Structures are given as structure tokens and as C-alpha cells.
Amino acid sequence: MLTPRGWWFLIIVLLIFAIGAFAVVNYTTVPAILALTLLLWFLSQWIYFNLAANGALAQLQAERLVLQGGRTTPVLWANVPFQVRLRVYHQGNFTIRYALLEDRLPAGINLVEGHTATTATLPRGQAVDIRYTAQCPAPGVVRFEGVRVRVADLQGFFYRRIFLRDPVEFLVLPPLVDEEGNQRADKRFNILPPPGIHRLRRPGAGDELHDLRDYQPGDPPKMIAWKASARKDKLITKEYESDVPVRCMLFLDTSEGVRLGPTGNTLLTRLAGISAVIAQAAAANRDLVGLTTFDDRSAQVLRPARTQTHMITVLRTLADVAALQPSTRGVPLETMIRQVYPLAHEIYPELMTKKVNTVPLSRLWQPLLDRWWGWIVVFILVAPPALAAYKLANILGGPPLPGPVQKIYQTWMATTFDFAVRITPKVFWVTRILLALLIWMTVLCLPSVLAAVVWLLYGVRGWFGQRVAELRKRKQLAALLSLQDGAGPDAIERYIHDDTAFAQRISDFLEHHRHRCPVPMYDDDGRYRYRCEQKAQVLAYQLIRAVGVARDNELYVVLADLTELGDDLEPLVRACRVARARRHHVLIIVPWPVDIPTPDSQTPSPPPADSSSRPEKLGEEPRINKHQQRIAQIVQDSLTRQYHESFRSMRRALSQAGASVLRVNDGDPVRLVLDHLDRLRGMRSRR
Amino acid sequence: MTTASTDPHLESARQNHTQRLSPRQVVERLLQDERIRRYTFAALGALALTALVLYLSGGDIGAAVVMLVGTVSIVFRWAAGPPLVLLVLFYFSVFPFGYLQLGYNNPLQVRETHFRISDLILVMSALVYCGSAYRLLGLVHQSLPLENTSRRRDEAAPRRPSTHIAANELTQFVSASAAMVLAGQVVWWLINAFDFTPMESGFPFQWADQESFARYRSGSFPPGEFSAGQSRFFLTVGLLFFGYLLYRLVFGYWRLRVMGPAEGAMILANTSWAESHRERARIEKWRAWGRQRVLARRRYERSRTTAVSDSRIAALAVGRHDSPHRGTDRLDNPSS
Q1: A60, A472, A548, A589: least surrounded by Cβ within 10 Å?
Q2: Under an 8 A CB cutoff, do B258 and A58 touch?
């Protein structure tokens, strides 16, 4: 592909050659020889670039190694740096003189050290390495798409871009923590005591004697240490160690409302991180941990267990759900195309070029018959010649046309003939007759000509304007998607015409490539689109189901965005009452949006800046901005107040049902969960 | 397999290839970076040689203008610099004294100007200048075109690091340039050594009689015979046409050979769609019409159901005694 630099050079050289070889060659041959030599040099560079492009670029290969802790790994840990080693090489017969290689960094990854791009000369068999260290700040899924390769000659005349697709996905597990909830990078399960034995001994219902204490009313008589009581002359009670593990069930909200936000910084990611810490801390205490992920339609349950395999399964599940994206339902198709078209061009450049994926002009032609009045134009186009042909065919007599049509026909013929005779100049009679006939035929067919012009103008309109660009983009994307589906050319036209199918397929494409599309938060009526009120019902059902299968007092930790559910919270309130009636603990952790101040730290909104303090040279526009800022501030304050009120209502309703409610940014939720577990452990009924 | 480079200095130099340089940095790199300096001197030397040849042929103004434009375009990183120098060179070759007056009209000029030393030096120096200037642009300004038609604010134009310049790169370039100069002379001689003879049987080009002046005369020629200029034109057009045809044949076929399966499938799908898109579009329009019809029917049914329910509720609310079967009939049998 010629660059603008190459085009300009070629055009100038050809111009000089044309003038030098054919216009001024009798005066001087220097321009012709100069241009010819430059042209030969240009062609030699062109040929070499094509040789390298076909012989080496097409055989380019990439190998990727991802190392964490010095070893290759199929999964990654969040907040732990990992190294990416990328090796690019080819076995072609030519040298790529200049290439820019760039690894496509997945979204949500922080580059810690090194660079993702490098320039290189690539001879046969010699590899180029790209090494960098990165870190995933949050659990989820990381997708490496491949390497972007841009090749040019040394002069910058020719250019080609390819993408070495090497898609590989890594699950990013939440970081490992110890029993106190502190992060650590290595696993130390093997130093833990056996099940039921805690480092911090506490009274419970085990077999081992823990301590003796004074009798308290209510202690069962069988716990009285009679010998000790006799010696002390007062009742002494035996205390046994607790050796019964407590079961903790996590309920994680994965509805679309918590999936909103940039990659790695969503409410769901934070909730999943907290869930992971709680699960690991509880497991470190040898307590059983289960996980239920739910949204507004369904739920997935992992029953409580204690094994390392189960913990890994829990972490994998958390990483999976942390990578979930909000659906693009309701997003305008144009917005989605704006997102997906550059992505498709970047990852599939060879499939999106005009050479292999094009739109012919005939497809852009605007069909007239799509409009109802198009049929009228066609009738006007066809009717006069058809009438004339019919009458000519029956010139020696034939059946007349049906009544009114015959009358229109006669009037039309007579009027046009009269008009032709009147405007024909008075010349020699033979000429006059011929001229009059010519004019008459022209006037007869004038409507057809006008209709043809209308048809032409209407159809040609399709070749210009915004519609062309939109149709071309859509067709190219449709061809790419149908190729991926293996659906063939049928699907191309279907995606062009069917907005619903096309939007759904684009959404799948974006999700497959882990690309987040901005979604509208509110619908046309101003309602919040991601309230997901059905999730309260699903959660309540799962909570009651967990109560139904519970063996002992359990702790239910609900990590869900329930703030804006309002009256739809009622099923959950009832479920909490059921759980509390069975002596279970319910702890609800609510995520808090980053852009909304907490009720504790709410500060009055800053007053808008004084317009007099602004520089005058800014003119009128700052005043408009200030007005908009003020409106935005008012709306923001109103939304904040509304959110605080919703949170208070929710907390009141759930607290009345016996559940503890706290915000995710209010203190240390992990510590609080562990305290609840300890409290539960002490509440076990003695033997 | 070996790794291309592991030198940390080279690596750091490679990584800084997207920072935009200030004019001062450009001059510093042009003169202080040892590898870039070779190209700088090559370009300026070639420019000086060009100016010298022009000066010796009487174009002192042309020499100065070429020198000025060439130097400024390097310092200020003008991508249009080399074509501009070529245009200036062309102008002062045709009009050595600067004003629009052609010299002596000599039809035999073509015969007498093969392998002239001054032409060789001039062409060689112009070629070296163009190549060096473009390579310098890649080293200090931009080596790859931008991805978008309009430059984004955060988009950095990549430069070729000077560490990429091989030790013998300039030598190879100058040697290739010399070969190209000789090839250019040979091709120019060949272009003028043939007569276009379409009326003759066999190959339509024949060696021209070098002793004869007839093909250089002006005026009309008998049918089937062409002047030297016309033969040159036909030969040039033929060379360009058939050369391009050969190029497309060879590289087009090669491109098909190295094409990936996805690309091939895309070509097939695209071709198939292009041949049948009218029929497919018609079918899809009917499908869309069918969907709309179903939706409209559902909407109509829903509105009727809602209206009937509302009317029954309203009737119950006002205590009107209506037949219980009437509403049921209407619900069950829409045609009623």
C-alpha cells in the first residue's frame, strides 16, 4: 500500500518524466533521464517491499509466555505482577527492514515495567523479543488478542499493517490472603491446624477440655465438674473447646447494575474481591464456605466445603463473574458500531480491507420502488411508450382501450399533436411534417424522460452522503461476523437489514473480545435502567433455600446492590426474618458508588465559581458552561440525596428483619464477617 | 533462532521512538548522532553536487535555490522537500537561467546524450539526496503513516530509531543508487533505440536505424511509420502497461498463495454476496415486513385484550350487569 509520501513522489516523478520525455526532450534530456532513474529506483523499492511482504510478513509468527513468580502459569493472581515475554520471528527468505511491533495490552491492566512496543529489523530466523511486566488490579479475565505489526520501507513509501492474532485468555484470580484477611502471595495451607482446631482456643462443643469456670445459671448439669466443685465448695462448670466449623454462605450479586463501570473498577469487581478475601479468611480458620452468585434471572450455587479444590473453584467462579459485562440492550446501534468498527479494523485488518470486503456501487444505488410513489414514477416512465407501441401495433384497426383510458389517450394524443403542429416553424412541407412528427414524439415521451431523470437522481443519491459510510461500515462488519459464524453470504444481508440480530451479534462480538461499550444509564423516561428489581426475589429464594439445607447456625453474607430496590425489597426482608428465626446471622454488604459521597462524609456542594472571576476573553461560552455546571451540580445533589434516602430506607427495613447492613467502604467488612463467625462459633449449643 | 538485540542502550533508544522532537533536538540529532549524521552528510553532499552540476551548466540561480530548498526541507522536516527539490531541479534543467525561455531545439538531442558524465553525476546526486532525505525524515520525524485520516491528539508518529541503521546501510544505498543510475541510462537508451512498427508482421518494435536521421525529422509520416517521439511514447506506454500486468500477475498470484484461510473465505463470501445481494435484499425486506406484521398483530391483540379487560372492570365498577359470557366470547373469539 502506497503512503501519501509515496504517492506524491510517484506523481511528481511521472509528471517530470512525461514532460521531460515528450515535451522538452528536444531541448534537454536531463529531466527524462532523472525521472526515469528515480522511477526505476522507486519500482525497485516497491518490488522489494512486496517481496518482503509476501515472503516474510505472511510467515510472521508470535509466541507468548506469561510468567508469574518465575513460572509460566495458566491463571494469574490479581495485584501480583506478571511478566509477558513475546517472541516474533519468521522463516521467510527476505528481511523485513523496518517493523513496529506492538502487543495489544488488554483493558484493565497496569503496565509496571517495560514497553509493549518495539521497532525491529527482522531477518530470517532472527527473533525479536518484547518483554514487559504488568499487573491486574482486580480479578476477572484478561484477554491478549495478539500483536499489531506495522511494516514500512526505509523511505516511508510503502506500508502494510497486519495483526498476528494469538488470542489467549487468562483468569485473574483474587489475591490470596491469610486468616486475618491480609494479602499474601504464597499459599500456606499446610501449616494450618486440622479441622475444628483453632489457633485461638475458644469454648465450644468439642471433646477437649478447655477450661473451668464458675457455674452460671443455665449451664447444663452434665457440664458441672463435680470434683472441682467439691474441692472449691462451689459449683464449677467445665468448658470444652470448640471444634465445630462454622458455615459461611456468600451471596454475590452479579446483576447488570453492578457490572457497570470501566474494566477492573466495577462494583462487581470490588464485591468479588471482598468475597474472595472473606472466603479465604474463613477457610483459613477451617470454616466451610459456600458461594451463590445470582442476578435478576438465575443463581448458581457452590455448596459450602473446605477443601483446597473447593477454594480454587470459588476463586475461579469469582474471577469469572468479575469479568461479566453489562448487556448492550438499549444502546443505539450507531454507538455500538462506533465501538466495534475500530476494534474489528484493529484485530482483523486483512478482513476489513476494501480489497476483500467491499460494497459495490450497485448495492449503494437507492431503489426507487421502496417508496410508494416510486410505482407512479415507473408508471409514468412506462405508460407513454407502451401506449404508443400499442396503438402502433393496432394502427390498422384494433380493439379500443377501455372507456376512460381511451378518452385520456385520445385527449393526450390530440393535445400533444396540436402542440407539436403549433410550435413547428413554417418551412418546406416535407421538412415541416418530419419536424412536427419529431416534436410530437418528443413531447409524447417527455413524461418518460422526466420519470427516468427522477429515477436516476433518486438512485444516485445513494452514492453520496452519510448513508454510504454507514452502509459500508455495516456491510463490512456483517461480512466479518457472518464469516465468524460460518453463515455465509445469507447472514451478510440479514445483518444489514435486521437491526435486532445485528445489535445482538455485535454485543456478542464485544463481549467475546472483552471490550466494554458505554451503555445509557437511564431510559427515555428518565428511569434507571439497571435497577434489576427481580434480583431481590431470586436472592430471597436462594436465602430460604440455604436456610432449608442448613445444619447448624450459619452466617449468610449478602454482597449485593440493594439500595435502590425500594418496595421490591420485601421478599428479601421476609427471607431475612426466616433466617433470623432459625438463629442464623445475616450480614448484608452493600457496594457504594465511587462518585457518590458517603452519608458520613457528605460535604456541601461547592458553590459555582463567580462569573466575574473568569477572564473576559472567554466570551459567552463559559457562561453557558457555568449554567450547565450548575444544573449538573443540582442534579448530582438531588441524586445523592435520593441515594442516601434509599440507603437509609433499605437499612431500616433489613435491620428491622434482624440483618446487619453495612457499606463496603464503611470500616473493614472482612474483619466484621470474621467477628460474626466468631460470635456464631460461641453460640453453638453445648452437648 | 537468535534474538535480534539485547543491548539495553539499544532497547532504550528503541522505546523512545514516539516522542516528538523539538527543532533543536532535530538539529542535534542530525549533526550529533553518529549514525544519522552519515545520512545528513550524504544528503547535503548530494545536494552540493547537484548544485555544482547546475552551476557548471550555467544555472547559478538554480544551484542556489536547490541548495536552499534541500537544506531547509531537511532541517524543518518537510515531507514535501524531496519532490520540491525535484521540481526545482526540473525547472532549472529546462530553463537554466531561470526565466521561461527554452534553449536550442535539437531533435538529435536524444541521440547525443547517452551516458554523459554530467547527467550521471546529477542523477546520482539527486537520487542520493532523495533517498537520504526520506530516510532522515523517518529517523527524525515520522517513519510510518498515521492510522487515521486525521491525526488524533494523543496519537504519536513513530520514528525509526537510529540504532536500526546498519553499519553498511548507507554504502548499500549508494551502491544501489549507482546501479540504478546506470540502469536508468540503459533503459533510456533502450526506449529510444526502437521503432514502433505495428504494420510489420511479428513483434511491433524493431531496432531503429541509428545511422538514419529520418525518424527525427518533423512533419507527417506515412501510415505505419512513426517518429522517434511517437515510438518512444508507445514503447513507454507498453512498458508501463505490460510491466504493471506482469507485476500484478506475479505478486497477485503470490498474494493468493500466501493468503490465510479466513481471508480466502472472506473473498468467497464477498463475491457470492456481491453476485446475489439483490435477491438477498429482497428476501430480507420480506422477512422484515413479516416481522413487523407479526408485531403489529400482537400489539393489536394485546390492545384488544386490555381494552376488553378495562371495559369489564369499568362495568363492574359502575355496577352494570353485563353478561359474563359476552366478554369471554369476545376474548376467546377475536372475530366476534
Answers
A1: A548
A2: yes
* B86 and B120 co-located in one domain: yes
Q: Are residues B285 and B222 in the same domain?
A: no
- pLDDT value of position B223: 74
- How would DSSP label each residue in B64-115? HHHHHHHHHHHHTT-TTHHHHHHHHHHHHHHSTTSSS------TTHHHH-TT
Q: What sections of A323-428 are H helices per DSSP? A: 333-347, 361-364, 372-393, 403-423
**Residue A357: which of B183, B251, B266 has the nearest Cβ?**
B266
Determine contact: B214 vs chain A, CB below 8 A.
Answer: no
- Residues recorded for chain B: 336
Q: Please tell me whether residues B104 and B27 are part of one structural domain.
A: yes
Query: Closest Cα partner for B288 from A637, A527, A249, A502?
Result: A502
Which residues constitute the domain of residue B21? 16-145+157-184
Q: Looking at the predicted structure, is the pLDDT value of residue A26 above 80?
A: yes
Binning chain B into helix, strand and coil, the percentages to the nearest 5 are: 65, 0, 30
Q: What is the pLDDT of residue B26?
A: 87
Task: Please give the full DSSP string across A425-479, using - where no structure is assigned.
Answer: ----HHHHHHHHHHHHHHHHHHHHHHHHHHHHHHHHGGGSSHHHHHHHHHHHHHH
**pLDDT tens profile A510-536:** 999 999 888 888 888 888 888 888 999
B115 dihedral zone (left: phi>0; alpha: psi -120 to 50; beta): left
Domain of A210, in residue numbers: 203-241
Same domain (yes/no): B104, B167: yes
Report which of B170, B182, B192, B63 is spatially closest to residue B121, judged by C-alpha positions.
Answer: B182
**With the C-alpha atoms ordered B128, B129, B133, B134, is the resulting torsion angle positive or negative?**
negative
Is A374 in the same domain as A425? yes
Is A106 within the bounds of a domain? no
Q: Are the CB atoms for A105 and A117 separated by under 8 Å? A: no
How far is residue A92's CA from residue B229's CA, in Å, rounded to a whole number? 44
Q: B17 and chain A: CB distance < 8 Å anywhere? A: yes
ipTM: 0.84
**Tens-digit pLDDT profile for residues B314-325:** 555 555 444 433
What pLDDT is attached to residue B10?
Answer: 46
Q: Is the pLDDT of residue B105 over 90?
A: no
Higher pLDDT, A665 or A636: A636
Residue (of B124, B226, B218) closest to B173 by Cα position = B124
* A80-89, A214-223, A366-375: range with highest mean pLDDT: A80-89
- Which of A1, A16, A30 has the most B C-beta neighbours within 10 Å, making it the best mutation to test the interface with B? A30
Considering the domain architecture, whether residues A619 and A655 belong to the same structural domain is answered as yes
Verify whether the Cβ–Cβ distance A33 to B265 is below 8 Å: no
Domain total in chain A: 4
pLDDT tens digits for range A611-628:
444 444 444 445 567 788
**Cell numbers 473447593: residue:** A310
Cα(A502)–Cα(A518) distance, rounded to whole angstroms?
Answer: 17
Q: A534 with A389, same domain?
A: no
What total number of domains does chain B contain? 3
Q: Which A residues 408-437 touch B at CB under 8 Å?
A: none
Q: Do B260 and A16 touch (CB under 8 A)?
A: no
Residues B208, B292 within the same domain: no
Q: Note whether B35 and B169 are same-domain residues.
A: yes
Question: What does the pLDDT average to over B158-179?
Answer: 91
Q: Which residue of B has its CA nearest to A50?
A: B251
Rounded to whole angstroms, the Cα distance separating B35 from B40 reads: 9
Of residues B85, B103, B96, the one with CA closest to residue B62: B96
- Name residues 341-360 of chain A within 8 A of B (Cβ): 348, 350-351, 356-358, 360
Residues B134 and B90 in one domain: yes
pLDDT class of A242 with cuts at 50, 70, 90: low
Q: CB pairs below 8 Å between A and B: how many?
A: 248
Quick check: B295 contacting A, CB < 8 Å? no
